[in-house]
Structures are given as structure tokens and as C-alpha cells.
Amino acid sequence: KVPLDAYLMDFVFSEREDGGIYDNRNGMDYHVPVIGGVAREPPMHIVHIAVEMAPIAK
Fold this sequence. Notes:
Elements: E1 8-11, E2 13-16, E3 19-23, E4 30-33
Catalytic activity: [(1->4)-alpha-D-glucosyl](n) + ADP-alpha-D-glucose = [(1->4)-alpha-D-glucosyl](n+1) + ADP + H(+)
Enzyme class: transferase
GO molecular function, one term: alpha-1,4-glucan glucosyltransferase (ADP-glucose donor) activity
């Protein structure tokens, strides 16, 4: 049964409980939307964007 406040399942893969190969998608984890709950994912508020530009060769 899906909890009513669920909107996203966040998980990683592991070969064994006590170690082994661990896949967390380079720290970003895996995410799957959950259907059946009444909650909605809160909006993401972007507060800062950084851009690095390469110097122009002369």
C-alpha cells in the first residue's frame, strides 16, 4: 500500500547488505514517481546559477 504522503521513491542499488558493489548514480540516487498518494512534489526554487566560461585564446 502506498502511503498517502508519498510522491517519489528515492533509492540506490547494493549487491549485498554488508557492502559489495554500491550504485547510487554518482551521488544523485535513483528516483521514480509514486502513483496513488494524494501529496504532490513541492516546486523546486532555484536561487543561484553559476556559469563558468572558458577564456578566449588570442
